[in-house]
């Protein structure tokens, strides 16, 4: 087995033979998608404990004319390996800001925030903070309406610099969420070191909530959050029992198919008008 760039193992070299050919085709198609603006941003509601929508997570979609809907789990890693993630990330940010602007006029009663996923590669760019700041400034969106979701991957580069950037972003008024908490190698040390506002408890814990060990872990994560003044969000809430259980443990917000999947912009607006006119 060979170790590939980002620490994943492949049974054979991904750059040889059939797999390599498919990968090159996908890469080519992804470049075209970027040029032709084939991507869409969809929005999944974030709920509070009164079942009110307090925001949405922006999730990228690639409806490819040739391949059908390509899942982000399939093309984001490729975009990261090829550097296309920078252009995609810029597109996502601009799209998100445009959407927030439209919500201000189309959904005046909705003052929720929009949270976007930021790849560690984007975050590592030296000009990340300044270019983000100027984009937000131009759009005239209050900084607190935007939240950035980062993963433990941001710590793979310079640790001090990462923390410094996070502090700068928070000073600007942006919210920072630590995504997928509990997966990978994430540890309590991240909570100690990283200045964050929100902790997203990974879906895998929520789906196992009926089991004793995951339940205790989720309970512990929520109470750590409370003590550290960090809001907790449960991802992948699919059932009423999961929801009421999480509420009773003091979880702050909730996201999952129980409330809604990610919706395209039009469907999201309709959903908001229906649920909180
Ligand atoms: P994520 O950030 O952890 O996003 C949550 C994923 O869980 C989304 O998958 C969402 O559709 C799915 N999900 C939400 N509720 C439920 C539920 O109740 N049950 C189940 N089974 N799944 C649920 P999606 O949209 O396929 O995104 C997959 C991953 O791709 C994301 O995971 C994120 O890591 C990445 N991604 C998506 N959009 C972007 C983007 O704009 N930029 C970057 N860098 N990464 C993105
Ligand atoms: Ca996320
Ligand atoms: Ca997540
Ligand atoms: Ca994930």
Write structural notes for this entry:
The protein is of the alpha/beta class and 277 residues long. It is built from eleven helices and eleven strands. The protein has an eight-stranded mixed beta barrel with strand order 3-4-6-7-8-9-10-11, surrounded by four helices. The longest helix has 22 residues, at 85-106. The structure holds ligand C2E and calcium ion (3 copies). Residues 179-180, 200, 235 line the site of one calcium ion. Ligand C2E is lined by residues 44, 59-60, 71-73, 76, 92, 117, 119, 179-180, 203, 235-238, 255-257, 262. It comes from Aestuariirhabdus litorea. This is GGDEF domain-containing protein. Residues 23-276 form the EAL domain.
What topology, given as strand order, has the largest sheet? 3-4-6-7-8-9-10-11
What is the molecular shape?
globular
Multimeric state of these chains? single chain
Q: Which regions are unreliable across 5 or more consecutive residues at pLDDT < 50?
A: 1-5
Present as ligands are:
ligand C2E, calcium ion
Alpha carbon gyration radius? 19 Å
First-residue to last-residue Cα separation: 56 Å
The helix-and-strand class reads alpha/beta
DSSP strand content: 15-25%
Specify the number of helices: 11
Count the E strands: 11
Helix content: 40-55%
- What's the main sheet like? 8 strands, mixed, barrel
pLDDT averaged over residues: 92
Order of helices and strands: EEHEEEHHEHHEHEHEHHEHEH
């Amino acid at each position: 087995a060979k170790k590939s760039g980002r620490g994943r193992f492949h049974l054979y070299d991904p750059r040889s033979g059939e797999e390599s050919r498919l990968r090159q085709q996908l890469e080519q198609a992804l470049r075209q998608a970027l040029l032709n603006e084939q991507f869409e941003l969809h929005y999944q509601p974030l709920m509070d404990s009164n079942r009110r929508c307090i925001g949405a997570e922006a999730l990228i979609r690639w409806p490819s004319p040739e391949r059908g809907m390509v899942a982000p789990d399939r093309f984001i890693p490729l975009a990261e390996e090829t550097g296309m993630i920078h252009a995609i990330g810029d597109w996502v940010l601009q799209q998100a800001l445009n959407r927030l602007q439209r919500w201000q006029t189309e959904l005046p009663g909705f003052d929720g925030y929009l949270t976007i996923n930021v790849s560690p590669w984007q975050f590592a760019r030296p000009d990340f903070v300044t270019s983000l700041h100027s984009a937000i400034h131009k759009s005239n969106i209050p900084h607190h309406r935007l939240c950035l979701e980062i993963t433990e991957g941001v710590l793979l580069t310079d640790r001090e610099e990462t923390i410094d950037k996070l502090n700068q972003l928070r000073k600007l008024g942006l919210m920072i969420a630590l995504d997928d908490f509990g997966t990978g190698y994430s540890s309590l040390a991240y909570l100690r070191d990283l200045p964050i506002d929100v902790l997203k408890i990974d879906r895998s814990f929520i789906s196992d909530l009926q089991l004793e060990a995951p339940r205790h872990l989720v309970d512990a994560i929520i109470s750590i959050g409370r003590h550290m003044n960090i809001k907790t969000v449960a991802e992948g809430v699919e059932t009423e029992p999961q929801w009421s259980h999480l509420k009773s443990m003091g979880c702050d917000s909730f996201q999952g198919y129980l409330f809604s999947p990610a919706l395209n912009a039009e469907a999201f607006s309709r959903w908001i008008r229906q649920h909180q006119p």
